[in-house]
């Protein structure tokens, strides 16, 4: 993978947010009949991949992995091969919606709860009236429902499939159905981005973003979906990441 830096074996893209958006735009415009799987990975995902063989395979077969976390950027600097900036799923989604509003791209949204899914799509339609909504569905799927949803997405042939079912579940779900989603041009997971767009979760204030403390804002203020590990438990992996990626040689 060109233009990457390896952090604990994960090849992170060195493209900026604008460069990543341009890269995806070129893929859409090329008409290449290939599903482009982008992954936004943070220190938690990086550490999890060390012991999760399937996740490690998914990361190495991805078309692009963006650095979704200041820890990744700092680790690249420590390595002497710096990444210019973070490229988070939320920021990338907003950039692509803005670009899609200019170019008439289509999006299918899969994930979060039913009410939030509806509200997020409603807000997106208001803010980006030229974006085509190819479809949407909540993320609480049973195994029996999955084939019908996959068939619906395939039939809709969206430019972008946005998956908001939590990491790394979203990317494992995409990987499981990769062949069946061949008519989709680009797919990536966005974590809780639809919750923010819908207004269910308050985005971090500008000062928190400037200080690279969005993770702390989420830790304190963002609710955790039923069935997911608490954010405090998930953040327990950060010391491991700091030691393995920035201290241990």
From TrEMBL:
The molecular function GO annotations come to:
N-acetylglucosaminyldiphosphoundecaprenol N-acetyl-beta-D-mannosaminyltransferase activity
Q: What InterPro entries does its record include?
A: WecG_TagA_CpsF
Entry annotated with the keyword Transferase: yes
Q: Which top EC class applies here? A: transferase
Transmembrane feature ranges: none
The answer to whether keyword Transferase applies is: yes
Q: For this UniProt record, give its keywords in alphabetical order, as a comma-separated list.
A: Glycosyltransferase, Transferase
The protein, known as: N-acetylglucosaminyldiphosphoundecaprenol N-acetyl-beta-D-mannosaminyltransferase
């Amino acid at each position: 993978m060109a233009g990457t830096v390896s952090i604990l074996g994960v090849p992170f893209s060195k493209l900026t947010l604008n460069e990543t958006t341009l890269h995806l735009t070129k893929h859409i415009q090329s008409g290449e009949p290939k599903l482009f799987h982008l992954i936004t990975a943070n220190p938690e995902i990086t550490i999890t991949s060390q012991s999760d063989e399937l996740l490690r395979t998914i990361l190495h077969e991805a078309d692009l992995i963006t650095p979704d976390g200041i820890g990744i950027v700092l680790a690249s600097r420590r390595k002497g091969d710096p990444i210019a900036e973070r490229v988070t799923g939320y920021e990338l989604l907003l950039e692509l919606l803005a670009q899609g509003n200019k170019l008439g791209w289509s999006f299918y949204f899969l994930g979060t709860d039913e009410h939030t899914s509806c509200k997020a799509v409603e807000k997106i339609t208001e803010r980006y009236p030229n974006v085509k909504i190819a479809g949407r569905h909540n993320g609480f799927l049973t195994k029996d429902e999955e084939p019908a949803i996959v068939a619906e997405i395939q039939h809709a042939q969206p430019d972008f499939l946005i998956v908001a079912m939590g990491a790394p579940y979203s990317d494992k779900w995409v990987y499981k159905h990769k062949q069946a989603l061949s008519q989709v041009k680009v797919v990536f997971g966005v974590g809780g981005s639809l919750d923010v767009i819908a207004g269910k979760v308050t985005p971090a204030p500008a000062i928190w973003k400037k200080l690279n403390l969005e993770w702390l804002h989420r830790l304190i203020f963002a609710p955790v979906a039923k069935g997911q590990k608490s954010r405090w438990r998930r953040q327990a992996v950060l010391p491991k990441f700091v030691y393995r990626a920035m201290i241990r040689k």
